[in-house]
Amino acid sequence: MRRTFLLVMSAFVIVSCSKGSRSAGKPGSRGELIAAEKSKSFLAERPYGMVAIPGGSFVMGNADQDMTDTPEKAMLKTVTVSSFFMDETEVTNGEYRVFVKYVRDSIARTLLAEAAGDGSGTGIGNYAYLSKKSGNATPYDEFIESHGGRDGYDQSKRLDWSEPLYWNTSQYPDVQYAEIMESMYIPKAERINNERVIDARKLRYAYEWEDIESAVKNRERNISYLKKESIAVYPDTTVWLRDFNYAYNEPLFNQYFWHSAYSNYPVVGVTWDQARAYCNFKSKLKSDYNESLKKKKQKPMNFRLPTEAEWEYAAKGGRANATYPWGGPYLVDDRGCYLANFKPKRGNYIEDEKKGTYMYTAPVKKFGRNDFGLYDMAGNVAEWTESPYNNATYQFSSTLNPSLSNQAYREVKKSVRGGSWKDVGYLLMTGNRDWERKDSARSYIGFRTVQDIPEGSAKFKKRTN
Questions:
Q1: Where in this chain does the record put each Sulfatase-modifying factor enzyme-like domain (predicted)?
Q2: pTM exceeding the 0.85 threshold for the entire prediction
């Protein structure tokens, strides 16, 4: 027993007096607690197509004459918002089509990968999951697969996006490939004029998001606050007919979203949920790119819809009393040209082509930008915000970054801002409020995205491309 005690004491002395011992902090810190990493100035990189909106304070609300005496007008309130990036234009048809095509391709690739099995052979075998292909499985892939995978994203089921997809029937590599690809189209019995088109009902985007506000309220954080969404992403093109029962808008119904002539026009027919799904996709696209780099970058901030306060602040362009995004109280410039796309007179949607008016929506960037560099913050299409709508919002919301995000997905009414091509000039004012049900799609409502800028960012980094 005594011998055992002496051995233990000897080991203690050896460990305690070892010259190789180190402090828990940075080597050579003489026992002081010093961070291992040096503090570096963080440069927020400006995403493509976005502009930096510097934080500041402004008077929120409609300070101009309220000719309609609507309850949307609330008590004026001085609030402060943090810096953020914002899309310089509304999301266009061309940009949204990238989202739709990604959903289409990912669904097709998943069906092909499931059918490809272990990836043996040619043809459909080329579309097997990366982990099934020889030399691509990592130890982590093997571990996950041996445990039956896991809920949510499965690392072992990564798709091989380097393998090209063939949508032309003459290029189908084998019969099994043809069978799977044909399942993406509307069944023959349901086709109109036997037209072979993708079944938009199958284009659903699945993603997860955390209800952080509810978790914080209950002082806990676990998987029960994880919300799973599966959103149909294709825009509702019937809005051009449903919104105007007694008008001939069939050409827009047939062509507005998919035709190349409208690529640079703002997307419409998108619900609030679809706009949020697009934001998630945009965040995923950037995050996946950063993960693919050998030298991984800082995890990017997520894209989202702007809050009502952020939208109004951005629309004013830094001006103290901006009735419209361009400042002054007039809708025309000194040459008599209109400064936004709206309905100038009753029944007269296109008063004079020389004055720059459009019958429906206009291509983005056709009208001047405000002092922040944002286009079409008035007119063209109204825009979804993240905020739920309430007449009393201004009265009970915070004066610092006003937001009701903990109620955003629960409330049916959502705040819509900016006015549209079908509205009169009064509805284009920066302080004017409107709303729509989140499950409604309209021919005059679109959206744009924002991205937070960390408060610790030293300055904004300009893109080199």
A1: 49-450
A2: yes
| 356 phi-psi bin (left φ>0, alpha ψ -120 to 50, beta other) | left
Quick one: how far is CA 211 from the chain centroid?
A: 17
pLDDT tens readout for residues 65-80: 665 556 555 678 899 9
**What tokens does 53 get?**
């909106």
Q: Tell me: the pLDDT tens digits for 294-338?
A: 777 777 889 999 999 999 999 999 998 899 999 988 898 888 888
Give the pLDDT confidence of 370-413 residue by residue, as tens digits.
999 999 999 999 999 999 998 877 777 888 988 876 566 678 99
Q: Quick one: 56-92+235-465 is in which CATH superfamily?
A: paralog of FGE (formylglycine-generating enzyme) (3.90.1580.10)
Going by C-beta distance under 8 Å and a sequence separation of 6 or more, which residues neighbour residue 174? 122, 123, 124
DSSP conformation letters of 104-171 = HHHHHHHHHHHHHTT--SSGGGGGS-GGGSTTT--HHHHHHHHTT--SSS-GGG---TTSPP--SGGG
| 249 alpha carbon, distance to own chain's centre | 29
Alpha carbons 13 and 380: distance in angstroms, whole number: 79
Which residues are registered as beta bridge partners of 415? 435
Strand partners, 327: 324
| Residue appearing with tokens 């062509």 | 255
Asked if 178 and 169 count as a contact pair (C-beta separation under 8 A), the reply is yes
